[in-house]
């Protein structure tokens, strides 16, 4: 176990034969961690060594003594609610609160990942003792796991949110959350955390090369998203019944969208070019999905059969060599993950850099802002604030160069 910051080598977790206890030696002093081999002792080892690394190998004696005493108390009897009990209670709450259309959202998974780090280091500690230094230790552990700075900041905020909820449920004193609020987010260039790469628009040349390698249905999905600026999930969930074809410019109102829990409406406008692509997908039941993986697979097999070189009288007949109970079958609609996988595979086949459909939003927003201004891009993207739209739009560097040229 190594620290990226100071290259400190942490002493091993070992057994004290005379006492039968787990022990680790830091700065020349033995720290007893509880019964050797127990889960509590291993958790205490991870916690005290993480704090030692966080402090640069200068953990104070007073802190060490307090830690050992707390471990002993927790191992004998639980006098207060522990961190792991807070985590368990919050996860029960999260699975019922973060739901959309009867299913848990991705926020549940994100919270679970953040709390997994907390549980590993401080699970058996008293929740009322979880303070700013403990939160910084958790944050450092996230950094050493390779998480980027923005992700670390979001996960730390989720940890704070858990303790805020615990305060609202009167499980811990309000002072615990107030103390955690003093831990500010990591600043760019001022921490060991790596920086994430910004999401950039994808060029038309790359899109065209990728489309040539895509199945026809997925290629149309890319073109529709490219012309409307819709999110990948909104393209996957498109149904004929969700499209109002009365006005000249059609209106697509998604059954579900990212900001619906904020009571924000979402209308995606469909122009003439996009209408021509969609026409052939609207001749189906109003509640069925426009873009079907099962239909795409059927088309692929039909083309494969037409290109068959073996005579029909020889070899296998169509469908005769299929499994009766295959592990995976094509569903009635794509999700954003299967859609993304299809695009990435086609990009590799086309010999261009791999990209995700999410980048089409950035391309659309950049083009609209360049031709019609920021407010138009904001409305088309369905953003409540212009600041959010600016994240999706690339700066017009050519315009800046023109301005500089004209200033003499």
Main features:
408 residues, mainly alpha, 3-stranded antiparallel β-sheet, 17 helices, 50% helix, elongated
Describe this structure in words.
This protein is mainly alpha-helical. It is 50% helix and 7% strand. It has 17 helices and eight strands. It has helices at 39-54, 61-76, 83-97, 106-122, 132-144, 149-168, 174-180, 204-211, 216-228, 232-236, 272-278, 293-306, 336-350, 358-372, 374-381, 386-392, 397-406, and strands at residues 14-16, 21-26, 29-35, 99-100, 103-104, 243-244, 250-252, 268-270. The strands form three sheets. Strands 1-2-3 form a three-stranded antiparallel beta sheet. A three-stranded antiparallel beta sheet has the order 6-7-8. Strand 4 and strand 5 form a beta hairpin. Helix 6 (149-168) runs antiparallel to helix 7 (174-180). The protein is elongated, with a radius of gyration of 28 Å. Mean pLDDT is 82; it is low at 1-6 and 61-79.
Summarize the structure.
This protein is mostly helical.
Q: List the quaternary state of the chains.
A: single chain
The poorly predicted ranges are 1-6, 61-79
Structural class: mainly alpha
Shape assignment = elongated
The overall strand count is 8
In DSSP terms (H or I, runs of 4 or more residues), the helix count works out at 17
Instruction: Classify the beta-strand content into a percent band.
Output: 5-15%
Q: What strand order characterises the main sheet?
A: 1-2-3
Gyration radius, in Å: 28 Å
The end-to-end distance, rounded to whole angstroms, is: 60 Å
Helix content: 40-55%
């Amino acid at each position: 176990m190594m620290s990226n910051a100071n290259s400190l080598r942490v002493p091993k977790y070992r057994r004290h034969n005379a006492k039968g206890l787990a022990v680790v030696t830091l700065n020349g002093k033995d720290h007893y961690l509880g019964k050797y081999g127990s889960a509590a002792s291993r958790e205490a080892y991870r916690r005290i060594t993480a704090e030692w690394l966080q402090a640069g190998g200068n953990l104070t004696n007073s802190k060490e003594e307090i830690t050992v005493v707390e471990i002993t108390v927790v191992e004998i009897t639980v006098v207060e609610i522990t961190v792991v009990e807070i985590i368990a209670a919050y996860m029960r709450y999260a699975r019922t609160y973060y739901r959309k259309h009867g299913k848990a959202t991705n926020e549940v998974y994100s919270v679970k990942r953040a709390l997994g780090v907390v549980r590993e280091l401080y699970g058996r500690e008293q929740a009322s003792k979880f303070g700013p230094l403990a939160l910084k230790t958790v944050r450092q552990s996230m950094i050493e796991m390779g998480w980027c700075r923005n992700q670390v900041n979001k996960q730390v905020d989720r940890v704070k949110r858990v303790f805020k909820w615990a305060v609202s449920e009167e499980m811990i004193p309000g002072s615990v959350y107030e103390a955690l609020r003093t831990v500010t987010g990591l600043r760019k260039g001022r921490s060991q955390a790596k920086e994430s790469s910004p999401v950039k628009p994808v060029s038309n040349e790359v899109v065209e090369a990728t489309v040539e390698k895509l199945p026809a249905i997925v290629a149309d999905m890319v073109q529709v998203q490219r012309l409307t600026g819709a999110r990948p999930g909104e393209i996957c969930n498109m149904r004929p019944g969700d499209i109002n074809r009365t006005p000249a410019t059609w209106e697509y109102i998604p059954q579900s969208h990212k900001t619906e829990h904020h009571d924000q409406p979402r209308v995606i406008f469909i122009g003439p070019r996009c209408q021509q692509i969609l026409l052939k997908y609207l001749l189906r039941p109003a509640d069925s999905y426009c873009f079907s993986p099962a239909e795409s697979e059927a088309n692929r097999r039909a083309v494969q059969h037409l290109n068959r070189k073996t005579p029909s009288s020889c070899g296998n007949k169509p469908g005769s060599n299929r499994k009766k109970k295959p592990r995976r079958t094509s569903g009635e609609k794509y999700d954003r993950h299967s859609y993304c996988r299809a695009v990435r595979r086609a990009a590799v086949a086309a010999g261009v850099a791999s990209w995700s459909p999410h980048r089409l939003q950035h391309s659309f927003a950049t083009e609209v802002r360049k031709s019609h201004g920021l407010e138009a891009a904001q409305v088309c993207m369905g953003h409540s604030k212009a600041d959010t739209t600016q994240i999706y739009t690339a700066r017009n560097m050519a315009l800046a160069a023109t301005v500089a040229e004209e200033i003499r």
